[in-house]
Amino acid sequence: MTLKLRQICLVAKELEPVINDLTAILGINRCYVDDGVGKFGLENTLMPIGRNFLEVVAPIEEGTAAERYLERRNGDGGYMFITQADSVATQEQVRRNASENKVRVAWESQREDWNLVQLHPADLKTAFFEVETDAYNDFSGHWNPVGGDGWEDKVKQDVTIDFLGVEMQSDEPDEVAALWGKVAGLPVEDETGSPTIWFDNLGLRFVKASDSRGDGLGGIDIAVADREAILREAKARGCYRSDHQIDICGVRWYLTDS
Fold it and tell me: Which of left, alpha, beta for 173 (phi over 0: left; psi -120 to 50: alpha)?
């Protein structure tokens, strides 16, 4: 049973200013716009980070789930933790785990070659947890949310290399970590003082909320090749917090030199 983080989705009140900050500060490229999110009253843009992806969505209609999420968290922030499963069987196991732990399915789609299930952020206390599987199950290549293939030439790693971890914040991090672990079917470990679930390529850790924004996806760890370039651009755009942290789209970005 393997689950790999393939995509992190952020939500913003306005799309373009956030995309401009992300591409300029992190030194990454745009790679795809999914017109299909329009049916949810959203617009989006995706960017590769290594062989995985960063997405930002923004509401373009009133009354969307994204708009309600922005209101609940008082602004831009983390929205979805999106994984790829190694098989339909693994995906179905996560779905059963969710049901057994009273976590609702927010939305799902089943096709011959691409199945996905989104689990409800209210029940998971922090963010959407999405599990996808397709006919390829290629953990470093084909990915349907960016059209499958054709994004490879947009990968740029001379500044930002890859995701290293994701930070969920909660008033009850131990309890929320235990719930996520049960749903994912993965153990919760606590070797660093924060309960952490290890997916195939990174750790999902849970910390005490301390920024008055409540429960949610609050931080992302990234491996960087050019810290100075990131800090220089972050300072110019008002996103600098320290030599180890920048803030973009209501999310703390923690920098680790590769």
Answer: alpha
Is 159 in contact with 27 (CB distance < 8 Å)? yes
- Cβ contacts of 90 within 8 Å, gap of 6 or more: 1, 2, 3, 131, 133
Structural domains of the chain ordered from first start? 3-154 (3.10.180.10), 160-257 (3.10.180.10)
DSSP 177-191: HHHHHHHHT--EE-S
> Could you give phi then psi for residue 89, rounded to 5 degrees?
-60, -40
Q: Distance (Å, rounded) from C-alpha 59 to C-alpha 44? A: 9
Distances (CA, A) of 134 to 23, 127, 138, 142: 29, 23, 9, 9
pTM: 0.97
Euclidean distance between the first and final Cα of the chain, in Å?
Answer: 29
User: Are 185 and 1 within 8 A, CB to CB?
Assistant: yes
Residue range 180-197, pLDDT digits in tens: 999 999 999 997 889 999
